[in-house]
Task: inverse folding
């Protein structure tokens, strides 16, 4: 929200301070509807405040549409990225888009994995200097409401990055990203599927 608006009210700090000083959810509707619930603020908060939980509760008492619940698939992008064969397919020419909410929900354990994966493969990732994952916002309620500019944010995410292929953990990102780059865009699960080709080749 901050990157798009440059207004402290469009930030976790602004939202939390407003609530602490008596603001009602209805007063914060414009700000609430711009949040994509990526979970980074929960990880970064020095007071361990459940900001995402606060935002969800405030959202529920406004006339904003109900938040859709996205549960992580059993065979998630994270699980697939732990596969040795998949890791061998990643190269320094890849931009690997981590499933942001899933990372931040289990940050301590998963960030070590992604740090290792980046070091081993040389691929770039949607991590900022604080090792928080930068979201695309694709599929979020904020994007559906037109309160979050996905195209602007993805352009910022890709700016200055040199890559030949985009690998995404969340398959809903694929169609939108394909309209924004002429590079190959594919799901990490597609790399796992090439294991069948490898097996066929080795068994001859």
Result:
């Amino acid at each position: 929200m901050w990157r798009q608006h440059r207004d402290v009210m469009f930030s976790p700090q602004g939202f939390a301070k407003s609530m602490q000083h008596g603001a009602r959810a209805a007063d914060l509707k414009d700000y609430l509807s711009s949040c994509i619930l990526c979970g980074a603020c929960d990880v970064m908060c020095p007071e361990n405040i459940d900001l995402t939980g606060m935002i969800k509760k405030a959202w529920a008492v406004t006339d904003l549409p109900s938040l859709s619940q996205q549960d992580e698939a059993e065979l998630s992008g994270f699980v697939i990225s732990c596969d040795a064969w998949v890791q061998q397919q990643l190269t320094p020419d890849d931009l690997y888009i981590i499933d942001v909410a899933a990372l931040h929900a289990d940050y301590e354990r998963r960030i070590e994995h992604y740090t290792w994966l980046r070091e081993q493969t040389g691929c770039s990732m949607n991590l900022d200097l604080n090792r928080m994952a930068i979201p695309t916002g694709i599929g979020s309620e904020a994007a559906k409401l037109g309160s979050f500019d996905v195209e602007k944010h993805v352009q910022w995410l890709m700016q200055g990055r040199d890559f030949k292929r985009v690998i995404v953990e969340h398959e809903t990102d694929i169609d939108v990203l394909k309209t924004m780059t002429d590079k190959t865009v594919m799901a990490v699960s597609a790399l796992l599927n090439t294991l069948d080709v490898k097996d066929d080749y080795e068994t001859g």
About this structure: Residues 2-60 form one domain.
